[in-house]
Predict the structure of histidine kinase.
Amino acid sequence: MSETDYTGPFPPVDTMAMIPVILRLVKQTTGLRFSAVARVTADQWVAYAVDDSVRLDIKPGDERVVHETLCNEVRLRRRSLASGAGMRELANGPYEPENHIPQDRLQSHISVPIITSTGLFVGTLCGLDPEPQVFNDTSVIETLELFAQLLASHLELHTQLNDSQSELGVAEETGRLREEFVAVLGHDLRTPISAVRLSAELLQARVEEQHSRKLVDAIHSSTLRMSALIEDVLDFTRCRLGAKFVINLSRVDNLFEALTPVIAEIRHAHPKADVVYRFGAARPVRCDFGRISQLVSNLLSNAVHHGAPGGPILINGHVEDDSMVLSFSNEGAAIHADQIDLLFKPFTRAEGENKSAGLGLGLYICSQIAESHGGELHVHSDDRHTVFTVRLPLLVESVEPMPA
């Protein structure tokens, strides 16, 4: 096979809707009663698509001896050729090979090369007829050559589309395997980190020397941070693999009050932060309290890290219409408008933020927790303050019918 021959696959004929139309137009233009698209190489001639009105017994997939075809000469010369009565003035000059067309069967034959934009020879667009067809109009060949160019372009588009889909499939599979690997890795890291954390907690109760105590506290703090990062990665991986957050719903009569210990933990971890928690009367909600605690902890930690150092952080809880609302407000630089839409995307950090601060998954996970509860998470930022607002649906109490 020549290095200039097309070696790629042909798409299924039924995906090339234009081919039957072109074959019909070839017959109408030439007057020949058989037309075909053939794949031609140095070794074989194979019919790819056929429109046969004279029953030449050539069907798609059938082969002919390539060296006995005019199409082989077209492949070698890379130009259109015609043979038969009335065709000697066509195709850039007469060409009538001695052994290529059995004269007892075919009296007329036109063959036009199909060549890609990169110069690869694909095959031929050809017309045949057992009877001589007389015409001397060179525009016939020009029209068929235009059809051949159209076929080559269409084939290239199909090839590019198939290549893109294959690459996309490989990329998706690679991404899926990568995320599964991260999930397994995160799961396996839980055990040794838990062992280190428990050991640090035991040492905290026994070590009294000041310097050693600081080292133990640092180890304990690091294990807590690593555990939080692993949980974020596992949550993210579940979402990316198509699974929703595991939500175990239960009735919570006063969510505002129940969150007080969670906020106290953040206060304890950041003693310099000025955190104020205010809430009004609550109404029952159905929620996964562990997940809501995770959401509150992430949003409050976000306010501590990105708010003005030592500036006030106000958490406000109230009921509004059919929703329970929690807002987290902090002073500090405004979030740029072009970053607002990206805040809840995974691996997104605030501009200029130190990469060691985290993976950029916290706000993404918060948004997923809110959505999994049928709620929503929004942010508003201006020169004065930034406010993250969570809305959760209230529990709709069933009403028992009054006795008759």
User: Anything to note?
Assistant: The longest helix spans residues 139-206.
